[in-house]
Amino acid sequence: MSPSIEELSKVTVDAAFHIHKELGPGLLESVYEVVLARKLLKLGHKVERQVGIKFEFEGIQFEEGFRVDLLINDCLVVELKSVECLAPIHHKQVLTYLRLMKQPLGLLINFGSVMFKDGVKRVVNNHVATHDSALRIHKS
Question: What's the superkingdom here (predicted)?
Answer without folding.
Answer: Bacteria
